[in-house]
Specification:
Length: about 140
């Protein structure tokens, strides 16, 4: 063997001496990754299950929100005729109150003496009509 061959083999031996510890470290890290691979798979399965549960919860939440929206719409639809009835009764009561007020104003200047103290005061026609309208609205 010549000097060049001996030098080449010595360099190769030196490189192998340096590479062997790196190989051992690499082999230990690969073994650790393999051991932790099962844990990673279990973690991924857990994440997948949590995602599916979240999707199911979102679907139930959407269904509940849609149902609540329909329920509110139904209630509004039911309340609309009642609102119209109340508006009509309010307008009618205001007209009757205005008439009553006008009649009371007309009657005050002509009333010179106070009503008798015995028994309830006699009711005017406008008061009786207002009471009938209020009783009829109930």
């Amino acid at each position: 063997m010549s000097l060049i061959e001996w030098t080449a083999q010595g360099a190769l031996l030196l490189l192998l001496a340096i590479a062997v510890p790196f190989g051992w470290r690499l082999e230990r890290q690969i073994a650790a990754l393999r051991r932790e691979g099962a844990a990673m798979e279990a973690g991924a399965a857990g994440i997948s299950a949590a995602g599916e549960a979240a999707e199911a919860t979102l679907a139930r939440l959407r269904a509940t929100a849609e149902q609540a929206g329909r329920s509110v719409a139904e209630r509004v639809a039911e309340a609309t005729p009642l609102r119209e009835d109340l508006r009509f009764l309010t307008e009618r009561a205001e007209m009757l109150a205005d008439r009553l007020d006008g009649l009371v104003r007309q009657a005050r200047p002509t009333a010179a003496e106070p009503p008798p103290a015995t028994g309830p005061a006699p009711r005017s026609e406008a008061e009786r009509e207002l009471l009938r309208a209020l009783r009829g609205g109930r």
